């Protein structure tokens, strides 16, 4: 729509800022290839992890913003470097001993330890594509194995032979003295063993486009660089891939940022303009360590989708990509509730505000409405006090709180109720620790119990919150100690919901009963 195009040209939302940089590449003339190409890279050395999804999600957000401000066609490629040699056996896969025999063989030549696909590389590629398809991403998938063997990379490989000395000069400046002695931009694939070889190249022949080398047993070989006999080292591969495909945009983690000048220079030597770049901060696990495919730390895509919707994960990816974020299970409830807050806000916003709302960058011009009449965090607490094993138990409380709500009318809420049961049982329940109330806390809880017994109003969250405040105002300084006591004594947690809203959902009589049980020490284990 025209209004969003105008807004996008000035919006400070990071996808629009990146989209404008890409558009500026073609301010004088459109791309010769007829479209703007976005690319994400994937190294299938381990099972796909959530950081890989993040690259595709964020790149898609930028591509969506680009389409809002430009009529130039755009497409996204997900490129898998599955011809790379397996350097080590990932720790989170079966058949470890068998895989050890395939070290340094291309990932598409390593057996699938899960016995589902023709190779480990094919397995991981399929896992990635399945997850990307789950999220409805629009992309073309490229396999490095197919790209090299089909001849699609031949022209660039030949050009690299012709420019070999220039590219080597770029690379040698970045290497230690010892590494310089054996380094080559080309990695031959052994004709007999099939292993990717890290051996010195004795000769690069520009006449017939071959490389000569001695293998690890001292046997001499000469191979054409074309047809999948040779692959690029990983740093030259970046620039060569950009040149071969005409890539206009690629993002990557800050661990690649120092290599950007190398990638760009190689791309220029091969005769193409480097793409625009976006460097994001890395994801960390709950211990502050970088998440990785091989170690399997952090959260997998499957694990997130066990406890929350795909849209909540996309929302998490939108937030502050230039800031390092811890990515572990505790972030899920917050992401879910904030996503729905943004959905509710979107309806009444003007175009300027909509352009900075994360849900626009997740859904484009098809932003859905939220039917979450109860926050996810509240569902978790409801599951806790009700010891719910089935979402139907939660709906019993929800129907009393919001009579018009139902699984049919509120499918997002119904899905969230199922997620809440799973999340509560796996993460909240094992950590619950109740304690007895102190003398002061006991007085305040008795006051709250008695005021709720005499309460005759409707289930109004604000009115009930006022009662909670009144019972603690004169007894606690600061007042947050009162709410902390409520959470620890009644819910077995250090944090919790806005308590008036909780009472409205759980029920006044039910809360009275909850208080009495806590006062009697029912929840505290001996």
General description of the model:
By secondary structure, this protein is α/β, with parallel strands linked by helices. It contains 24 helices and 12 strands. It has helices at residues 2-8, 14-24, 50-69, 96-99, 120-134, 144-149, 154-162, 164-172, 177-180, 234-245, 260-269, 301-307, 310-318, 332-346, 351-356, 358-363, 376-386, 391-401, 411-428, 439-453, 461-473, 480-491, 499-506, 508-519; strands at 36-42, 74-80, 140-143, 186-188, 201-205, 210-214, 220-224, 230-232, 249-253, 276-280, 283-284, 325-326. The chain has a 5-stranded parallel sheet. A 3-stranded antiparallel sheet has the order 5-6-7, with no helix packed on it. Strands 4-8 form a two-stranded antiparallel sheet. It is elongated, with a radius of gyration of 29 Å. The mean pLDDT is 92.
